[in-house]
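Q: What would this chain look like folded?
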Amino acid sequence: MPATSDAEYMGAALALAARGLGDTWPNPAVGCVIVKDGLVIGRGWTQSGGRPHAETEALQRAGAAAKGATAYVSLEPCSHHGKTPPCAEALIAAGIGRVVSATTDPDSRVSGQGLATLRAAGIEVVEGVGKADADRLNAGFFTRIAKNRPLFALKTATSLDGRIALANGESKWITGPAARHANQSIRARFDAVLVGSETVRQDDPELTCRLPGYAGRPKVRIVLDRRLRTDIERKVTHTKVAPTWIYTTSHNPAASGPLRDAGVQVIAIDPSPQPSPLSGRRPAEFMSARLRRDGGEGAERERSGEGFLTAVAADLSAKGLTRVLVEGGGQVAAGLHRAGLIDELYWFRGGQVLGGDGRPTVAALGLDRLSDAPQFKRREALRLGEDILEIFSR
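A: My prediction, written as C-alpha cells:
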C-alpha cells in the first residue's frame, strides 16, 4: 500500500480547519495533523472563539510521541506572544522534526516569521502544499488583514427569472426543504448574517443558525437601517437568542433608546463618501452618465450609500468579523455590488417563473456598459432536490 502523500495529509488538515469556519473569528480557522511512521498521532483545529489553536490541540493529543514527527498545518504557525504562547515555539518544544505549511499568515506579527523560527530551530519546513485551498478557506481572514473589511458573500434564493419575491412581497417558499437546509449549513460557516431594514420589516427573519447539531457561537445579526426604523418587536431584536448590531446614520434617541434597552447594539455611522468603487474602480463615464441622467442627485445619494457601506465594513473588521453572509434584500445587494464589496455568491434557484413585476435579486445598478458589471466565476453547482445551488467567486 503506497505511503500517504504530503498533499493527502494536508487535505485532512484543511478538512479539520473547515470545522472552525464561522466560529473562530477574529482568528483564522486552522487545522493541524501530526504524523509519525505513517500514522496520525494527533489532530486539532482552532476552537470556538479562536482558542486554543489547532497546533496546541494536535500536540496535546500526540503527547510525547510528537518528537520527530511531521506536523501538517493549514496556515503558518503563529510566532507572536498574544493571549497564548506562539504555536511555532510549541512545535519546537514538542520536538517536531518536520513542518508542512499550506500558506503564509499575512498578519504582520507573523508573515513568514513563524516558519523562520522553525527553520532556525533546525526543523525541516515545506511550504505551499495545498496553498490554493488554504487561501480560499481563510479568504475572510486574509481580506480583513489586506482590505480592512470582512469577506462578504451574497446568498439569494430566486425564481428561474431571478426574482426573490412577488410584487406584494410574498416569497415563502421559492425553494424547497433541501435548499433551506443547505442554507443553514452555509450560515454555520459565517460569522454573521446581514440584511437590510426592509427585509426585517417584510419577512421578520430570525437570522439564526438552525442547523441540527450546530454547537458554535450564535451568529451576529446585522441590520442596515440608515433611518433607524427597526421595530422593537422584530425577531432580530430578541438578543437572548443571538447578538444584534443595527447600523444607522440616525441620531434619533427616541428610536435608539428602546433598542439599546433591549440589548441591541445601535451603531451610528458617518455616511460620508468613501473611495470603494464598483468592480474595484469607478469609470468616469459611468459617473458622468449618472450626473447627466439625474442632475447629480442620484449620483450623490449613491456615493453617500457607498460611503455608509464601506464605513460599516471597516467597523465590522475592527470588531473582528471575517466572514459575513448577506441575505437581503435587493437594495442592499445593489449597494454592496456598487461598492465592490461582494466577494462570493450563493445562488439558490427554484423552478418558478415570477415575471417582471416580481422583486429583483439586485436593485438597479445604473450600468451603461457591460464591462462595468461585477464579474464572477462559477466555482461549483449542486442539485438540492428540485433546486440548484450555484457558488460563484469574484
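Residues 276-293 have pLDDT under 50 and may be disordered.
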